[in-house]
Design goal:
Length: 299
């Protein structure tokens, strides 16, 4: 018998406890612009989402698209400026941001998931007033901080068999303003409001690294706070880990920061003993299941 077939059968068999464990689980996946890569990488990500849905999980995709916004702004002769990881967003820029995120990037992901056999529906925080924001910081202009979440639309979509794909653009409380929301912030707010079982933050590093450059596979919120305080966590990893802490406080069971450029990163994390990246959670250590009865909670 072909050895590859035997290995494939074993891999499927080994995935059984994880498939049981995650049946019905809500998994919010933040797909950052840097993790998106080329068409092949996009197609692979889409297949992972469709597989998760097929085996009974409820994936919810929240995407970024910072590099794509930079590119269009550059072509228009507008310089990109960031303060503490967030884009300074003028009234003019916010139009470009919405065009790129709700248009180009959102529909590219929707199309890839549909091509892989799923049923993706693209929305932004504006749809059904899902995410209502106020200004984050006057220095940043039209950058929003979510203050009111109405996530029933997301539940309706995944209950009906669809995969929601969400652009981090939102409505303001007054004057019909449009706000640009950092993708990590939006994913954390959505995962928190859904009380998601998992929040996966796909980025372009292997995980949270310590001062020796080693990925720390398991972290408690206190360890994360210490690493921010002593400078081991810096730059773009600060808003990411702060988002993780906030999501945990709101009831998300665990947050994983992982490298989205690794093939099948989400499947590797969810369906193998190996796991991937850095898991941040409050209580028990990272225990992998030995085999659960159908319907038994194991998260
Ligand atoms: N302790 C750390 N572990 C890993 N990455 C870190 C750490 N501290 C700072 N970083 C930086 O954070 C970056 C990830 O944040 P960012 O570039 O904003 O990601 P994304 O664009 O995917 O949202 C890494 O590329 C790395 O340069
Ligand atoms: C306020 C703010 O910074 N918004 C981000 C939204 C996109 C994003 O977060 O994209 P990545 O996940 O690819 O970085 C921006 O304008 O770039």
């Amino acid at each position: 018998m072909n050895r590859n077939w035997i290995a494939t059968a074993r891999t499927l068999s080994e995935a059984l406890p994880y498939l049981q464990r995650y049946s019905g689980a809500v998994v919010v996946v933040k797909f950052g612009g840097n993790a998106m890569g080329d068409d092949d990488a996009m197609a692979e990500f889409a297949r992972d989402m469709v597989l998760m849905k097929q085996v009974g999980m409820n994936p919810v995709v929240v995407h970024g698209g910072g590099p794509m916004i930079n590119s269009l702004l550059g072509r228009l002769g507008i310089e990109s400026q960031f303060v503490r990881g967030k884009r300074v967003t003028t009234k003019e820029t916010v139009e470009i941001v919405e065009m790129v995120l709700s248009g180009l990037v959102n529909k590219r992901i929707v199309q890839a998931i549909n091509d892989a056999g799923g049923r993706a529906v693209g929305i932004s925080g504006k749809d059904d007033d899902m995410m209502v924001c106020e200004a984050d910081d006057p220095e940043l202009g039209f950058v929003g901080r979510p203050v009111e979440m109405n996530v029933q639309i997301i539940r309706d979509l995944y209950t009906a068999g669809m995969i929601p794909v969400i652009a981090p653009v939102a409505t303001g409380m007054e004057d019909n303003e449009t706000f640009n929301v950092n993708g990590d912030t939006a994913a954390g707010a959505i995962a928190g409001a859904l009380r998601a079982d998992r929040l996966l933050l796909l980025t372009d590093v292997a995980g949270v690294k310590d001062s020796a450059g080693e990925v720390v596979t398991q972290l408690s919120p206190d360890q994360v706070r210490d690493m921010i305080a002593d400078g081991q966590i810096s730059g773009g990893m600060i808003p990411k880990t702060e988002t993780a802490l906030m999501a945990l406080e709101e009831g998300v069971r665990a947050v994983i920061i992982l490298d989205g450029r690794v093939p099948n990163a989400c499947l590797l994390e969810l369906f193998t003993e190996h796991g991937a990246g850095s898991m941040i959670r409050s209580t028990e250590p990272r225990v992998k299941p030995r085999g659960l009865r159908q319907g038994e909670a194991g998260l």
